[in-house]
Amino acid sequence: MGNGSGRKVVVTGATGNVGTSVVRRLAEDPEVGSVVGLARRIPDWSPPKTRWSAVDLASEEAELDGLFEGADAVVHLAWAFQPTHDPAVTWRTNVLGSIRVFEAVAAARVPALVHASSVGAYSPGPKDHAVDESWPTHGWPDAAYCREKAYLERTLDTFERDHPTLRVVRMRPGFLFQRESASEQRRIFGGRFLPGPAVRPGLLPFLPDVPGLRVQVLHTDDAAEAYRLAVRTDVRGAFNLAADPPVDAGLLGEMFDARPVRLPRTAARSAIAAAWNLHLLPASPHLFDAVLRLPLMDCTRARVELGWRPERAATDVLEEFLRGMRAGAGAPTEPMRGRKVG
Hints:
Layout: E1 7-12, H1 17-28, E2 32-39, E3 50-54, H2 65-68, E4 73-76, H3 87-107, E5 112-116, E6 130-131, H4 144-162, E7 167-173, E8 175-177, H5 182-190, E9 206-209, E10 217-219, H6 220-232, E11 237-241, H7 249-256, E12 259-262, H8 265-277, H9 285-291, E13 296-297, H10 300-306, H11 314-327
Parallel strand pairs: 1-2, 1-4, 2-3, 4-5, 5-7, 6-13, 7-11, 8-10, 9-12
């Protein structure tokens, strides 16, 4: 431990969807003495044992060594999803910023780095059975998000080789949702024109059933518990994180009381591409291509080595998130601010 009163843990991206949950879980842990939250903008939110520091990882002037001094672990969550029309901007934050974090962790001799990778780092894989953490992580090269996640997997391969005594954990969760993230994720993926009150059962007569659209989700609090366990447990390597059951058009149809209608991939992609090119939809067609190809993940390793199990089923996660969409739910940080639309 870094001091006599418990572990010191530094969290980057501490005001976002995953960051707020991770900070809460760490602050509640009696073995954690202090949490240092890093974000571009300091929030009004003040959880116990937590102090804040304003840092922009995209900046070459970001000073991290002093912030990491004496830390027992760094949890690296910071990530920019936008602008999808200018991937050079996200590359500066997500890739170059992450490399700055890795280098600062080594320079400050922090014993553990817990990095937020993603199911998006995986190469295309099966939808009818789950794969473990040995599945290739080369992403879908056309999608900036997947390309950046995969690049950092290769960066960490080299980082671990060069720093063999430093414990590196890579979390690969599915799609993460909670009630409080509804407004943020609507802005990031659905855009400002998506009316939250429309996402309710009975309003949609049918749902598009696109071949390959079968994914895994997880409640952000359940993901945060895995991060907390990774800080406390002497583990290394990658961990898949997801809740059952996988989400597809059939499950969504039951939730929305709507009939799934088969829609060819090309038709769905053309509609998304048109909206994206007109700047009506933030999520790119390239990300849609990737989602259709993501493998299902086997989470046995997290259960066995971390003692982790999600508390919420995928259906419960989605129902909570959709209630948040209708209410314009948010949290007291700048990325998570609430806003009701429609």
